[in-house]
Amino acid sequence: MRLNKDRIKRDIIKELQTERAINIDEASKLDIYYALSSLMKNYIYENWLKTNRQYIRNSEKQVYYFSMEFLMGKLLVSNLINIGIKDICQEALKELNIDLNEIEEIEKDQGLGNGGLGRLAACFMDSMASIGVPGHGCGIRYSYGLFEQKIVDGYQVEFPDKWLQNENPWEIKRKEKSVKVKFGGNVRVIEEDGRLKFIHENYESVLAVPYDTPLVGYKNKRVNTLRLFSAEAMEQDFDFSNFSRGKYIEAFEYKHSIESISQVLYPDDALEAGRNLRLKQEYFLVSAGIQSIMRTFKKLKKPIEDFHEYIAIHINDTHPALAVPELMRILMDEENLGWDEAWNITANTISYTNHTIMSEALEKWDVEMFKSLLPRIYMIISEINERFCRELWNTKYYGDFDKISQMAIIAHNQIRMAHLAIVGSYSVNGVAKLHTELLKKQELKDFYDYYPYRFNNKTNGISHRRWLIKSNPKLTELINETIGRDWINLPTKLRKLLKYRNDPAFQERIYQIKQNNKIKLSNIIREKNGIDVDPGSIFDIHVKRLHEYKRQLLNVFHIMYLYNSLRENPHFDIYPRTFIFGGKAAPSYNMAKQIIKLINTLADKVNNDSRIKDKIKIVFMENYGVSLAEDIIPAANVSQQISTTTKEASGTGNMKFMMNGAITLATLDGANIDIKNAVGEENIVVFGLNEKEFLELYRSGSYNSMELYNNDIRLKTILNQLKGGFFSVKKDELSIIYDSLIKHNDEFFVLKDFDSYVKAQKKIENLYRNKPKWREMSIVNIGSSGVFSSDRTVYEYATGIWKMNLHNGYY
Ligand code: AZC
């Protein structure tokens, strides 16, 4: 379809009339948004159909990315970009006196994820479609996404995220493709034709109704599918049996309880919930997803024994690890395969990514609860466990009870999901070099020793289409003008920018773009927070989930140190800085919530202290999420990536910031290390203990935070301020922070790294004062960021793990 401005104008007007019964001059922004999306669907659907037809016709191997979270953000503009009509659309709208940015505002973020893991899934979807991987997402259509955060009196308060309040124009409900998921009941074992048969009975059925969203590839006419399932009560259960028995109200209660399965996303990003409803959600996802894959597979008319030649299932952390027993169940109970055949297929179909070494995130299920909710699945896991333990005994660990019980899938009345995921898959990967090494050396060492060939690294990446082309259009324009557009299909070509690192004219333009982005962000801050910030100050930004290991506290302590120094000595020399924070705390994570309160309390005090003459401003932006990140990141000078080393598996925010020209202030943790290797030591500012020093100190148990308190007057002052009446908060309110650092010996080494952090911050300041140097660093960061595109990551998954042949001009 050829598109031009006039045609788009005509189509929008027509669309408004025929679909919304309204003329353009009366149309609201919401009307325009719907008209525009419906118009785009005309362009998208044609290619969606073609893509699906081609997949079936060519029997191309398909990959299904199973994830409990997809943090997609807004889709309108990103789809316009990928279709390739953003610019003409923007012009067409302008001629109709409509501002595309205002229309975009109307769209609600699709926030069905907590943080890194969910956003990674979204970037992968974009990259798969764009580099030509036949890959689809499989998840849950939560009625409520991650809670909306408001700051009230300095505290985080949670509100439901009503993202479906208005109709979601991108999804198509496919009721006719619904499948049944079974919970509870019992399993009767019978013998038939000399074989055991397992009859699941007295169960409760839930209907999993798919909603499909097209995933549009970048200017390549490919459209993949994100399939999210919603839970509905089965009509016959709901309508007839209960109603006819006069149980009218009970029938509604029943319906409500069934639908609660897809009601809400669990809001903890690295904490396992251990709850019955969460287990239901996890099984609901895998059972619905695999049944629906089975249907597609049948269309190919290939022998079931070859299933894994045509299908790859990737599980995003252990949350969908029940894919292992569920695929076994379907192959044995429904396709009538024997155990060995089913196991061969399963273990060659499933691959698994680990996203954290934090032990509190490791999923474990209580056996009793599990058994009563999923009796047949429990039997299968038990059998997998028995066979696995027997194999260990017979091969490597004869007589070694300890080793076998450490590695078992079921032990101490718990089912360990990570063990299930490793045993049942052919590939286990970490998400950055250090993280993968730690998995091999420590967390999963037993499994690495046993299955060394299964382990591999796939360093995370981000979609440069969303995090550069969409969020920073002016920088994109400058890049295109300078080195052409090749980099869009092969982002490592951004290296061509390095030639201009010392070119004063280019440096000036980079500076101007950053400056404009800072002005834009300042306006947002004025509007949302009522705080005036100076775009001439250093924008020093720390946005991510609130977590002790991410050490927002370390940042706060440095600010308190600066503030104390300025109060003591008004001539204390600092370059004006704006410290910007954003991030949500899990609703049950007390300490994280207190840190939010501390940031806001400090902000009030500092921002209103006329003695420091606006040299420091502190802003906490509420409700950090994908769209806000798109406004914040392009405006950053400094990117704070300061987790306690070994704790952040990778980080992906770090990559977004560098791609937008911020300088990373980093510990040697996660992908910060890979960033350092990409930009070179002189283009990043590193501080703090490294992995080796950290582990030594940690293991020796010789760290004593009290000593630092006693010996460093800066720390003593700050910590005393937390306890005393320095902040006008309720008495003892902030002492939980004091206690964690002093009484509980500072688990995340905030005090330990403080001195080194202060020095690194001083270094940042000096570098910033040296304008050509800073601009050069900024250019080197942008130019070196291509390797962190998720196109590269997905290419590595596709060829290295999923064994796909890609026919793509670039990759
Ligand atoms: C996160 C990691 O904490 C983060 O370092 C990584 O970049 C991201 O995954 C993507 O790989 N983990 C999570 O969000 N959640 C869990 C359960 O690990």
Automatic annotation (TrEMBL):
CDD domains: GT35_Glycogen_Phosphorylase
Gene Ontology terms: biological process: glycogen catabolic process
Necessary cofactors: pyridoxal 5'-phosphate
GO molecular function, a single term: glycogen phosphorylase activity
Task performed by this protein: Phosphorylase is an important allosteric enzyme in carbohydrate metabolism. Enzymes from different sources differ in their regulatory mechanisms and in their natural substrates. However, all known phosphorylases share catalytic and structural properties.
Top-level taxon in the UniProt lineage: Bacteria
Name of the protein in question: Alpha-1,4 glucan phosphorylase
EC number, UniProt record: 2.4.1.1
Keywords from the UniProt entry: Carbohydrate metabolism, Glycogen metabolism, Glycosyltransferase, Membrane, Pyridoxal phosphate, Transferase, Transmembrane, Transmembrane helix
Classification via InterPro entries: Glycg_phsphrylas, Glyco_trans_35, Leu-rich_rpt, Pyridoxal_P_attach_site
Protein species of origin: Maledivibacter halophilus
Gene3D superfamilies the record matches: Glycogen Phosphorylase B (3.40.50.2000)
Residue numbers of N6-(pyridoxal phosphate)lysine PTMs: 656
Name of the top EC class for this enzyme: transferase
Cross-referenced PANTHER family: GLYCOGEN PHOSPHORYLASE, GLYCOGEN PHOSPHORYLASE, LIVER FORM
Transmembrane segments: 63-85
Family per record: Belongs to the glycogen phosphorylase family.
Gene Ontology cellular-component annotations: cytoplasm
Catalytic activity: [(1->4)-alpha-D-glucosyl](n) + phosphate = [(1->4)-alpha-D-glucosyl](n-1) + alpha-D-glucose 1-phosphate
